[in-house]
Amino acid sequence: MNKKPIVYFLCTGNSCRSQMADGFLKALGAERFDVRSAGLEAHGLNPRAVQVMKEAGIDIGGNTSDVIDPEILNQAAYVITLCGHADEHCPVISNPKVTKWHWGFDDPAKAIGSEDEIMAQFRGVRDAIKARIELFLEQGN
Fold first, then answer.
1. Is residue 11 flagged as an active site residue?
2. Total count of domains within the chain
């Protein structure tokens, strides 16, 4: 039995961007990949991230916010950081076969303004992550 390659999405708190990426890749590529996400810390799921993903037809409400697991980190085919802080502070990956990429997205949790303006930021980041996931899949990874 061939195991699917692991894609491990990392962010600072595993509450927004990594959860969105996790949700999209599970929805669009679960037959090809074992999808995981984690953070340098576990901040819990951001309710606005859950809401905008639900608007896109993906329920991440049952996901958990997890801290990086060094074992998964070194078993992954791809480790993808979604924020600069996680990219700079990612634990050392000892397996040379792991491909590490950085896909930087603004943190929608730091958006300010009215609720409509904040939700627009979440939707913009969500849509940008979806486009990047689609490109990843199109490129045959």
1. yes
2. 1
